[in-house]
Amino acid sequence: MALTRKHFNQLAEVVANFPETVNANVLYENHSAAVDIKFVKNELAGKIAKICWEANDRFDIDRFLEACEVEKEDAINHAF
């Protein structure tokens, strides 16, 4: 089964909803801190974009990354 625009849209929605920060408990004095994991979201989007591009030559990487709401340049660096 080939990947279609519907699949690409669903994947982009998953990435777009991926958190950019997580709360982490600090062992010292039971504090909590927000940790920036935006780089994980960018890498995830880039790797998925590469898979989609290899599966369908009409895949629009720019459009996909925009829908993923990621930093395009960082995502592309992870993809290729």
Q: What would you say this structure looks like, in words?
A:
With 80 residues, the chain is α+β, with helices and mostly antiparallel strands. The protein has one domain. Helices cover 57% and strands 15% of the residues. It contains four helices and two strands; from the N terminus they run H-E-E-H-H-H. It has a two-stranded antiparallel ribbon. Helix 1 runs antiparallel to helix 2, helix 1 runs parallel beside helix 3 and helix 2 packs antiparallel against helix 3. The longest helix is centred in the middle third of the chain and has 18 residues. The radius of gyration is 15 Å and the shape is elongated. The relative contact order is 0.21. The model has no long low-confidence stretch (mean pLDDT 91).
Give the topology, please.
Layout: H1 5-16, E1 21-26, E2 31-36, H2 38-55, H3 61-68, H4 72-79
Antiparallel strand pairs: 1-2
